Amino acid sequence: MWLSSKKQTKKPPNVQPETSLLRLYHRFRALDRNKKGYLSRVDLQQIGALAVNPLGERIIDSFFPDGNLRVDFPGFVRVLAHFRPVDDDDSGMRDPKQPEPLNSRMNKLRFVFQLYDLDRDGKISRHEMLQVLRLMVGVQVTEEQLESITDRTVQEADEDGDGAVSFLEFTKSLEKMDIEQKMSIRILK
Amino acid sequence: MSGRGAAGSGRGLLLALLPALCALPRVRGVEEGPGSAHGHSQGFQVVTFEWLHVQDPYIIALWILVASLAKIGFHLSHKVTSVVPESALLIVLGLVLGGIVWAADHIASFTLTPTVFFFYLLPPIVLDAGYFMPNRLFFGNLGTILLYAVVGTVWNAATTGLSLYGVFLSGLMGDLNVGLLDFLLFGSLIAAVDPVAVLAVFEEVHVNEVLFIIVFGESLLNDAVTVVSGCPEGSGAWHGASLCISRPLATTFPASQRGTRPSPASSVLLPSRQPPVSPAVRPPRRLSALPPGSQSRTPLWAQTPCRPFPSPRREQPSALGLSSGGAARVRQGPWSWDTRPPLLPGSQGGRTLGVVLQTWVLNRYRMVQLEIIDQVVMSYGGLRGAVAFALVVLLDEKKVKERDLFVSTTIIVVFFTVIFQGLTIKPLVQWLKVKRSEHREPKLNEKLHGRAFDHILSAIEDISGQIGHNYLRDKWSNFDRKFLSKILMRRSAQKSRDRILNVFHELNLKDAISYVAEGERRGSLAFIRSPSTDNMVNVDFSTPRPSTVEASVSYLLRENVSAVCLDMQSLEQRRRSIRDTEDMVTHHTLQQYLYKPRQEYKHLYSRHELTPNEDEKQDKEIFHRTMRKRLESFKSAKLGVNPNKKAAKLYKRERAQKRRNSSIPNGILPLESPMNNLTIKEKDLELSDPEEAPDYGAEVGGGIEFLASITQDTTATDSPSGIDNPVFSPDEDLSILSRVPPWLSPGETVVPSQRARVQIPCSPGNFRRLAPFRLSSKSVDSFLQADGPEEQPHATLPESTHM
Known about the structure:
Chain B: Residues 255-332, 781-803 are annotated as: Disordered. The structure holds 2 protein chains of 2 kinds. By secondary structure, chain A is mainly alpha-helical.
């Protein structure tokens, strides 16, 4: 069942091999304590290490798009699929009409962008950037410092001067970074 | 000798030593003459020196004392230990002492037999190692370790032996009475990488965990492989394993009897823990109680818990072995240089090649890749130690004709690797890192987002269960938790096993202490620190910050954005303009204050010094923040979906549960992970409120109970009766936080931001959790007493104070 839904979002030669899918399924089952068949926020919050991750809450939220309260296995895998390592031979053979695979560079960046852009307006406003910064920085940094850092960050990335970072600007500011490597987990290969 | 020994020594431990010492060389008889020469003095003898009488225990005790003092002494001088690896220092010490003894006495005082070593010296080492072995890391990387240990060692042995044989065949070595088998044997001896020296160096260099554990595990297990493949008495290198183990055992005792032979190596052995024969018997280490010869091949995994982690005492034997070897070499007759030149590059080259090949294979299967730098470090870290020396000393002269040659060669190899490679590995690692660092100036965006990526990746790894999840380990820990812990641990110890809770608890304690100290220091009115004045970024740029130079070798090299301390560079390049100053300040601030992702701050513990607890502080801050947010969302969920009735029900449930819990010891509640906590609590929930829709109740209750379990358990460890009512504390948190703390002077009406609240060394929420330390079983009372008057309005039930 889930394999077929997986195929819809991936091009056929790139289907996740059985073993890692199976592993993810076991993980899903392990997380789903009450054997409900889906995961709720609480199940994800029980992972202790997420509580000490500054972006933990946001990542959990990303599993529940559009205000859902539950995520089933295909949804679970869909989010994790963003983190598959990128195969080099993909880009050559790809059929341009098919949707881009989830683990492409653009889609990885889009995933992160959505973590920042909470109101889904397609831009990271200064306020949203400030919030993210506040999450990631220790408590010794004062409010003024944070604001100035935010200003500079937005300024660096912003090209059209609207005071917010759109997705394209975001992508452009990170063009030198090796996203494919930084945002991949080998086990999902 | 034996009679005197039995009568004289009253000490239990050493009494048992003496029968073993009965096997000592008869050469001692020489000393008996002068020792008993006091008899013929005139008059009444007030004081006699019965040296021989107390000699053995005395020397042992003195030896232990000297070794311990030396060890401590080395670490007093931090400058020295940071440059020179400790094993090298110990070798020097051993050489000095060996020289003294040898110069004074020219005879062996005594040698150490396997029995002595096994029964008296090994158990403390083993236990010490067992406590400190990093289990999780080890078993997580077990496949890699086994590959390196078994295949790698065999490969090393083969290449060394074969290359030497090749050189021999080409005639460069001159005329020697050796065959291929001897070379192979020698190769297998020399292939044993000694863990002590390597790991001491690694500890100092602070390599990343994976590299450390691989090297550690490899050296752990390769001794066994060496012995099995080597069969020290040279009776056929590749026989069946059981023969190889039992035969050395059968021959070791006779070998110890033969300690009188004039072989220089054994004669200079100090009264130390140098195990001349024990490597051969090392594999069945754990079964030391069994009679020799009845051993069968111990599976490698059984040896694991026993293998000594580099402990202080462990290093002594190797060092002393080396030192004695050094002294032995001094005496050695033939200084044949023929074997040595090919050996060193041969063995090192073989090792490097082996490492590279195996890593290539492993990287196809491993999650965390082993980088080039790791490989370089691994192959360069192939130091040989006392194991090799001990094994070569064991060689039977009759079977291996050129034994002395091998011995001297081994000594040279060992010395070279330990001293030269040990000294240079640290600068090498640092140099490699610096050379590969990123010269491009990272932009602010990149730095920030790069860090965000790291956090995201760690989170996804945790969710997908990659690094933290191992089925076997889970099963084992479940078993452990359900059965073993209940049998073997006290209840209070069981409670405090969850790591996060532990951290939380300790941090609360620290908060309490610092809260009180802060209050005393400042007086109550000036309590709150002004955030802005204290934290101006007037950091002294002239001193490089050490904190950014740490962390793993390969991680730093792998990472090219959120980079290492190049703020000095940014400083120099952009000194001129003001805007650039601001830029620099911003960079600096970010660099300093951004939370570190998990890979970066988790580096190796050190047994010699305490590492600072920065990661715990970071954990604590993030943890507080997360919990607070979750509670807010739960509260809003509670409000949104269900009216106060729900809250009242929850509250009642909590109290009932709490009451029940206070009678049922918390030990029943599994604490290993919050997940398990939750399950049990949900079951309890369902028992008490069957009419509750389990679905929603579980969901909403879950998060609060998570917090409940935390606060409950941490406080419960201190006061079994007084349990914090968890539903209160979050409410108290939020409602209190919206009010002005009492110690703020009335003029300051600014509500401190969330961050400022946490900045107070003990925010009200924290302190609240500490309150039940001292107090009654009624949780409400504890709050009242803890926080004084402003608590009164909140003593009522939460439903009335819902916002």
